[in-house]
Amino acid sequence: MWSPTEEEKYGVVICSFRGAVPQGLVLELGETVQILEKCEGWYRGVSIKKPNVKGIFPANYIHLKKAIVSNRGQYETIIPLEDSVVTEVTATLQEWAVLWKQLYVKHKVDLFYKLRHVMNELIDLRRQLLSGHLTQDQVREVKRHLTVRLDWGNEHLGLDLVPRKDFEVVDSDQISVSDLYKMHLSSRHSVQQSTSQVDTIRQRHGEACRMPVPHHFFLSLKSFTYNTIGEDTDVFFSLYDVREGKQISERFMVRLNKNGGPRNPEKIDRMCALFTDLSSKDMKRDLYIVAHVIRIGRMLLNDSKKGPPHLHYRRPYGCAVLSIMDVLQSISEIKEEKDFVLKVYTCNNENEWCQIHENIIRKSSTKYTAPSSNYGLIISLQLLRGDMEQIRRENPLIFNRGVSVTRKLGFPDVIMPEMKIVGCDIRNDLYLTLEKGDFERGGKSVQKNIEVTMYVLYADGEILKDCISLGSGEPSRSAYHSFVLYHNNSPRWGEIIKLPIPIDRFRGSHLRFEFRHCSTKDKGEKKLFGFAFTPLMRDDGTTLSDDIHELYVYKCDENSTFNNHALYLGLPCCKEDYNGCPNIPSSLIFQRSTKETFSVSTQLSSTKLTQNVDLLALLKWKAYPDRVMDILGRLRHVSGEEIVKFLQDILDTLFVVLDDNTEKYGLLVFQSLVFIINLLRDSKYFHFRPVMDTYIQKHFAGALAYKELIRCLKWYMDRSAELVRQDHIQEAMRALEYLFKFIVQSRILYSRATCGMEEEQFRSSIQELFQSIRFVLSLDSRSSETLIFTQAALLNSFPAIFDELLQMFTVQEVAEFVRGTLGSMPSTVHIGQSMDVVKLQSIARTVDSRLFSFSESRRILLPVVLHHIHLHLRQQKELLICSGILSSIFSIIKTSSLEGDVVEEVEMMVESLLDVLLQTLLTIMSKSQSQEAGEYVSCLLSLLRQMSDTHFQHLLDNFQSKDELKEFLLKIFCVFRNLMKMGVFPRDWMVMRLLTSNIIVTTVQYLSSALHKNFTETDFDFKVWNSYFSLAVLFINQPSLQLENATPAKRKKILDKYGDMRVMMAYELFSMWQNLGEHKIHFIPGMIGPFLGVTLVPQPEVRNIMIPIFHDMMDWEQRKNGNFKQVEAELIDKLDSLVSEGKGDENYRELFSLLLLEKIEQETWRETGISFVTSVTRLMERLLDYRDCMKGDETENKKIGCTVNLMNFYKSEINKEEMYIRYIHKLCDMHLQAENYTEAAFTLLLYCELLQWEDRPLREFLHYPSQSEWQRKEGLCRKIIHYFNKGKSWEFGIPLCRELAIQYESLYDYQSLSWIRKMEATYYDNIMEQQRLEPEFFRVGFYGRKFPFFLRNKEYVCRGHDYERLEAFQQRMLSEFPQAIAMQHPNHPDDSILQCDAQYLQIYAVTPIPDNIDVLQMDRVPDRIKSFYRVNNIRKFRYDRPFHKGPKDKENEFKSLWIERTTLTLTHSLPGISRWFEVERRELVEVSPLENAIQVVENKNQELRTLISQYQHKQMHGNINLLSMCLNGVIDAAVNGGIARYQEAFFDKDYITKHPGDAEKITQLKELMQEQVHVLGVGLAVHEKFVHPEMRPLHKKLIDQFQMMRSSLYHELPGLDKLSPACSGNSTPRSNVLVSHGPMSPESIKLVHRHSPLNLLGSVRHSSSSLSSHTSSETGNLVILTDSSVGETAEDMYHMQASPSTSSLSSTHSAPSQMINSAPSSARGSPSLPDKYRHSREMMMLLPAHRDRPSSAMYPAAIMENGQPPNFQRAFIQQMIGPCKPCSDPNLSVADKGHYSLHFDAFHHQLSDAPPALPARTLRKSPLHPIPASPTSPQSGLDGSNSTLSGSASSGVSSLSESNFGHSSEPPPRTDTMDSVPSQAWNTDEDLETPYLPVRYSLSEPDVLESLKSQPCRSHSAPSGVIPQDTMDPPALPPKPYHSRLPNMENEEGMIIEDDDKHRPLHRKVSQPVSGGKEEQARVAWEHGIGEQ
Length: 1989
Hints:
43% of the residues lie in helices and 13% in strands. By secondary structure, the protein is an alpha+beta fold. Strand 31 (1257-1258) and strand 32 (1267-1268) form a beta hairpin.
């Protein structure tokens, strides 16, 4: 049972669920779900992604999370309880994941990898945050890192900027727009910072404090590898400033044993120090780390005699330095320690030991010795930043290692209060430096080795324990022993010792220095010879000053006793001391050595002791009552450090002095107090302000002080008008805050003590004081600069006193004080610029103060604040400060509005600010100052957002006149419009933009009622209404509101918060339009474009609201003008530009039509309305198609087709000439891009035809300048002629040349005339000389509703590209329409295909039917001229399909073979403005067998006549091969039964009796046959005249075959004997490759080199047979793929004879030429054939007509030899391989096409279980030439160019396969060529001896299959056309499924073709040596084959 869940409400999918159960909800890993119900391990709920789809899912697939549920029940909502940053990271990562993958697809690899890295970091940081193990500081740091990365990624992915506060996303409802704007700015700033330098953000979120960040060096000594010392050592590290030549830090001391390890084993890995408190200034100094090495041992290192081994001395050894400047960069960049090696240098002269570090730094290499190797001190350094607390927090490991804190000498730059008064870090360090000594020799021959011992002694003579520190890192000691310099009576030590003496022991203590000589003799004793001393504190209480002190040296010896220290303390210690007490007796125990001196220097760093006499005098003022005035005056000269050290004591003293004598000391105490207060304003002491505050709150006791302080303050202010020098007054003004703190605290103390006495006097004194303040501020300061500074100081300090006053006065009272003060300031006009700024800053601080947060005080203060701002805004002064003040005000009001009522304050602001804000914004926007604009826009929006109905009502009621209201409305609408147009807020500020839109739509709703009420009826104002409509239109079109472009999550978020604001505005717009009434006519046609733009927004509701407005517009214009032409014109114009911008879609078109037609139905003008709407809808269809084509990666064809369609629509249907011309030029540009120059010319011709040869001026248009119509037309004509020239369509250019010539002639412009005539002449030359290709034509049907409108269910004829054959065209079309399915039959599709949601393409080749027949029939016209008319200006095309009607005659299939002829008529002729045009009309006729025969024979006769004529008139030069081939093809086909079959079929008595109506046609056929014989006779005569001697045998053979042909027709056609005498001799072999129908092995395709003398006769485009061209010109689309093999050699040429098997009829009856065998490749032997080309029988209909589509276009065969194309003509290669195809035409002779023959190997297997199939031909794979796998491969021989096959396939008749291509260098292997199709192969059931056997139509007939199976497999058989020479009549040959040929002869000379002859009839040179031996071999082989059979 399902039950609602209580706790389980929210979870994350931890395993993807496919939803494979009923009601299952599909869930992806990581999705979040809301759970509604549960039941036995299953949950029911929704995915947060798709909240509308409910479903069930397994409970164990979900990880539950805590969430807050509100509104429990059906519509409950859940809010996750996790940290908002975690939630944001999760959502962001999900959004990024999609975009991240797209980056890879778009090749933005760099960003792809960066983003991946950031995403991984986010996942890791999120994991840390969720772990719950972080401290608060760590959480804060992790969140900072997270937000920096989130913002970085969002910016780089172009996503929205997220405004944040403390890392959390802010809720825009909870803060003012001004604050939101600032947050956006700071977020943008942080993103930019993070992008440029992530480190710099570290301080951004920290507390804003003025304290400079201290730096610290962490130093760790890793090791000291010095094996040469062998003694213990002390190493001292310190920081040294080279420029000042002094040490700036304490020393860090490390004690090492002789092995280099720490002397104390506990110190291993703990020899580290932290050099603290280095300021930024210090970091810029030239600092060095200096390490001094002191050894502890013998006097001389290498001399064991010097001194006994038990005595150890401290002796200098060496020094090492490291420049911090050099390493600072490297250690700043990394956050861990970095190691450095320090070389230790030894000193050459011990006397200079104190300077060794300087010498090393200065590189004075003579003074020190470098070590022998690089070993030395290995240290590591790390730079740390921040105060000590932060360092301890962030680096706990360092402090765990027992780091030694090593301080600076003296105090840091910023003195923190904890060092002084509060806190326990009381510091009292005296740093003493042993400088130098000068001692006597004492009668010694050598100088002494002097050691100094120092003790600290208390007043009672006790030695103080642990008060001497040699350096941090080691414990303090009680005695100090200096190092010893060998034999030196004037030692210089320079060693610093720290004396951390307790404060209470400091007074009375003194230092004693004892001097001993260290002997190096055997005993090695240390002899005392003198001492010196100095007290630490003078008698006046000041400590030893920071200076060098030269102490007196007193003589003594070991026996001297120091037990009674009083004995020497009475003596003077130094010169100053001696001067102070000159009367000291000289006869004491200790005698001073006058020649000996000893110097030390001291530096005190103490928080409790002072060296300042004046300060001590003040603290002890009672001891000097007469000097108090002087002492108070001298306080100003005491240093700040001393004052802050004794701050509390000094303040106490001052107030005691004040109480002592107010009259006398009052002013001086006041001045001293002011001095101290201002001292704390210095940045160095700024942090003592809390100390001062603590003092005032807890320690201050001056209960009476307030009276005097007020009196003095007032006195200063009152004097400000008189005094010229006002420094002291300004000082007092600056100290105002703390003076008031003292005054208020004093009054509180007094009040407590006296229970509130003198309250009135206090209040009145304060009021008087405020009067004085107002007086100071009201003075005119323009003349006095000093007064300006006084006023500025007062204004700066003034806001700081409010908090103090609030302790004593009510909020209202303080507010009144402040209002009076602010009100007393002179207005802007009367003060200078600088005071202006100060005044505004003071107001800003007032607004930011606590006082202003009280609503009671705001009501009092707001008017005066707003007054000042208003004045500034009016004058456009100090705009940035004003905007800051306003932002603060709005921020406070927004916060207050969440808690209480702010109506009154908002009302004040509206009255004072709204108008001036609008004016300011308009000014700013006109100057494009975006920063200021942003500030003021946010202020305006804040104000509008706070306004309620009441405020708007008051605002609108307060306008005195309609003009004022109009001005206001125009202003606000203008600002709103600019706001949307200018993009004040960047695109990624989505939160800001949406909030802005929301405020605008709300405001507009309030204002629209006022607009309607005031400006509709008689007071109608077009300007305001127009402004309103423009605003509404702009609003709806805003990019930020187009939710369709947003991600689903973002869309949902926006809709939940604001709804769809476009709909709100659309309703508003519609209702306002309806309110206009009769005034609507003012907005027609002006608002049509804008409203149309709104309706095109892809939001159904907006469209439903807005589209009916167009009906309204039509109606109003109809009423006014009686038509709606304006609406119509404007709508069409605007529609074009808007749709091309990407607006609108199919749904819009349907909705537009539906809504308007529904409205128009009721109107009287219904008909015109419906017509218009229909027209617009159709235009939209075309525009949408056009746009889709243009914006997609569509092919040129589609774009061009689309443009033509649209252009024609503009011209024919809506007659918009300008649009029409625009699209003419767009179309022209597309054609030029696609290099369709002819089409480009025809397109421009359309514009040219619109122009006249007149001088009418034309305006500038598109790229045309202003010019006359004549000039434009001339320019166009020239351009068109140029394009025709580039397209080689010179015939089209010539009329234009003539037209221009007429114009030039009429103007006597002979220069231009000469130019154009020469151009015309050049074109004639080009026609005659340049090669042109004839294109193929293809019919394409586009079926299905998925096609663009302009193609849908239409058929077109397309003009192919050069060299393009059907297959290439088909591929191109399928690639242009990748979704389309190729239809596999030519039948017209039924309704199911036409209406389906798919794309079907039906493509087949068609034959052009030229209009200009005359020129084609003229004999003497060169073929180059005719070829143009054959394929140009064509409007009709033909497509033939052969079929059998009635029973098929097996004897002679021609009797029943009909032709179905489809004629297609186009809308325009090709070529034209497009490469394809729509079919306008289809005509279907059936051609009877007899008519077909007539046409076939007639066509062949015409072809022969043309060719013969060309040779007769010397148009063909030299090479007779073309004529040879043509004659051979016709004569051979006829001899072998071609014409005979026609005779059999139609001259038969049965036929004549059955078809009496055909008598005339039969006569016509007879006449044509007679004519053919006659023409052949003439041809042979011409042939004889030109034939080459070597070709004579061929000629003789032709004569023989011709006689056979004539005799066979003799009895039917009398009169044939009267033929030309040339026509005698033997028959010739066929000249056409024909393909047999037998099965083929995969090895059986071979293209062979040309060796034959007839090397040109290989490729027959049409059947050369007079009988067979019914398939060549009529049914040429058939491709027959057959499986057989035939061999043929050069010798065969001389042995061929008529044979039944070579009958021309043998394939005339074969399948329609569009058909392709559907047998599998195993049966057909077509290994290279991809399955997609193996179609059913119907598919064959799609192949090109014979002239267009040779069989090879579908079936590639390899023609490569050794990787290269064989050496046949380049023309052939072009035909076979190139993407462009040579033209082909049914009327061309054989030789017009590419010339090659196909040779096929014999097949060596029987065809078993071949499926039913049509007889078809294929190209066999040669064993030498592999077939490429791909039909599109460049080596593919399968291409539309193979006209050989197209001819023979269609005619099924003649073959010239004897010719071989190219030549090889070695005898080729035996190759079998396919020759004509033997009828026997297909008719095995007939008598084998019958000369003419009928041929079966289909392989599917069982008897054929049987016969094929029964055929023996043969590799050698006689050539089909070869019979013994002596046989006159052809004997019957046995049936053969194939024809084997003898090996072909090797040709010495291959055939070469010139480049420029590639594509035209070729004249080739034939050179063919003939070998008699090989003739014999051929005969023997053939006879052997017969025998075998």
